[in-house]
Write a structure and sequence with these properties.
Layout lengths: L1 H29 L9 H9 L4 H20 L21 H22 L11 H25 L27 H17 L2 H28 L3 H6 L8 H14 L1
Helix pairs in contact: 1-2, 1-3, 1-4, 3-4, 3-5, 4-6, 4-7, 5-6, 6-7
């Protein structure tokens, strides 16, 4: 437990240092004396004088998001591959694309909340959209944690996917076949709406394209390995649950009571 906490702390420290450098660079780039280099501390001083309460709330949310991601995406020693022998083909480049999306989304979100810099390609600065996006992102994080717990030991990352020991059809998997993908797409949608950053919205498009391809590769293999998967696939959607499925499950619960 101690070593796991220490690893998370190291990752968090690295993220904070990277964030400080990104934001300090942004402040330096936008200062009126752009030709005169400023130190990170003077950049931070200038930054803190313009930080709003809303910006601090948004930044705190980004920190929580980063910690949740670091905890649940702990791939040390490839533990997710233990007890699994059959590998599923997946886009090899996604391992690096995933890291790029993760780091740039965190940097762009926190940078937007603290500086509102044009370097993050902002399309709005609406308080209503800011909090609406945060609400969507918070729901997405809750869905992600739920789906990850539902999947348990059967999980493996989409860039290094393995055939699971069994097909999970409980919890969120009752309504959609890839709830982790769904939650991450919703998360970036919420962050994009909240920040108004086209940078994050471009990350959302890139992530969705890779997720769809990864899901297709996974499902082709699972349908061959698990006879019941064909029926499961026929009654659920890939990324987002249909209204019909929600109604059917709600009706069954009423009948059972």
């Amino acid at each position: 437990m101690y070593s796991k906490t220490r690893r998370i702390a190291r990752r968090f420290s690295f993220a904070v240092v990277s964030l400080v450098l990104i934001i300090s660079g942004t402040v330096w780039a936008e200062t009126e004396e752009a030709m005169v280099q400023v130190t990170p501390f003077s950049g931070l001083k200038s930054l803190m004088s313009h930080v709003t309460t809303d910006g601090l709330i948004g930044t705190l949310f980004v920190i929580v998001m980063a910690l949740v991601s670091a905890h649940f995406y702990n791939h040390k020693d490839n533990r997710y591959a233990q007890g699994k022998s059959e590998h599923i083909s997946s886009p090899g480049s996604f391992r690096y694309v995933y890291r790029y999306i993760q780091l740039t989304t965190i940097g762009a979100a926190a940078g937007t909340y603290l500086t509102h810099s044009s370097i993050f390609l902002l399309v709005h600065q609406s308080i209503l959209l800011f909090y609406s996006g945060l609400a969507i992102a918070a729901i997405a994080m809750a869905l992600f944690v739920t789906a990850k717990l539902n999947l348990g030991e059967h999980y493996s990352p989409c860039f290094d996917s393995y055939v699971p020991k069994d097909i999970i059809q409980d919890g969120l998997y009752r309504y959609v076949r890839h709830p982790i993908y769904m939650s991450n797409i919703l998360l970036l949608s919420g962050m994009g709406l909240s920040t108004g950053s086209l940078w994050i919205l471009l990350n959302l498009v890139l992530l969705t394209v890779y997720y769809i391809r990864s899901a297709q590769e996974e499902e082709a293999v699972l349908e061959l390995r698990f006879p019941a998967y064909r029926e499961y696939r026929a009654k659920t959607n890939m990324l987002f649950p249909s209204f019909r499925i929600w109604l059917q499950n709600g009706f069954r619960k009423q009948v059972s009571h």
